[in-house]
Amino acid sequence: MLLQCIQVTRRYERKGKVLCTAVKDAGFDVNKDDFISIIGKSGSGKSTLLNMIAGLLRPTVGTILLEGNEIWAGEEEKIAFLRNSKLGYIPQGVSLLGNLTAIDNVRLPHFLYKREGDGVKRAEALLERVGLKGYESRYPSELSGGEMKRVAIARALMNNPVLLLADEPTADIDEETTGSIMELFAEICADGTAILMATHELENIKYGKRVLKMSGGVLTEEEMEIYKKG
């Protein structure tokens, strides 16, 4: 088992009073070859769940295990190291640093913990894989929305993660680019990286293997065949 979420809850409180519960007792497993879509309306808790798994938002209660190790155990530095070495994260919206070229944005995770070498060959190979060979020296302002998303995908893969987390990876891009990105995700999964993707675009589900639905903070597993037929 790659990932286990056990009764994970996130509440927002003020002065001891619960304002809302974004995620309620979420429990599910992710296998090493899984490509899972999490669907649900905006505000249903999808992003909150991904952020807890990514080590960015601490659960109020519950346990998250990655390869048998509790993500939220230990000091912040240990959590950050686990996040950098084991997880790839593609956040919503534009996440590239505007003062860095495409290749330097991709290399960024490589430098966070003083890894050996400069990571150039790895970054070049990843940019080629996502269809951006020759774009190494371009800045985000010189890229389209779809191209920036591809750079973000390459960056998330820089440290060979065991699990790729993607939060609405095809939002605000055209249909053709969406299809090519989803095909790329399917290839990444086939090559051995598990994927957990939040999306409100039902057309994307067919590229995966399982589907979870979030509604009002409650997570349930749906029948995949329903979406494949659609």
Task: Summarize the structure in words.
The protein is α/β, with parallel strands linked by helices and 230 residues long. The chain has one domain (3-229): P-loop containing nucleotide triphosphate hydrolases (Rossmann fold, 3-Layer(aba) Sandwich), CATH 3.40.50. Helices cover 32% and strands 28% of the residues.
How would you describe this structure in keywords?
alpha/beta; 32% helix; 6-stranded mixed sheet; 28% strand; 230 residues; Rossmann fold
E-strand count: 10
The largest sheet, given as strand count, sense and whether it forms a barrel, is: 6 strands, mixed
Q: What is the global morphology?
A: globular
Ends: how far apart?
Answer: 30 Å
CATH topology: Rossmann fold
Could you tell me the strand content as a percent range? 25-35%
Helix content range: 25-40%
Q: What's the CATH H-level superfamily name? A: P-loop containing nucleotide triphosphate hydrolases
Number of domains: 1
Radius of gyration: 17 Å
CATH architectural grouping: 3-Layer(aba) Sandwich
Mean pLDDT: 92
What class would the helix/strand composition place it in? alpha/beta
Order of helices and strands: EEEHEEHEHHHEHEEEH
Q: What is the topology, as strand order, of the major beta sheet?
A: 6-7-8-3-9-10
Enumerate the spans where pLDDT stays under 50 for 5 or more consecutive residues: none
Number of helical segments with 4 or more residues: 7
Classified by CATH, the class is Alpha Beta
Outline the secondary-structure elements.
Layout: E1 3-14, E2 17-30, E3 35-39, H1 46-53, E4 61-66, E5 69-70, H2 76-86, E6 87-90, H3 102-111, H4 120-129, H5 145-156, E7 163-167, H6 175-190, E8 194-198, E9 210-215, E10 218-222, H7 224-229
Parallel strand pairs: 3-8, 3-9, 6-7, 7-8
Antiparallel strand pairs: 1-2, 1-4, 4-5, 9-10
Helix pairs in contact: 3-4, 3-5, 4-5
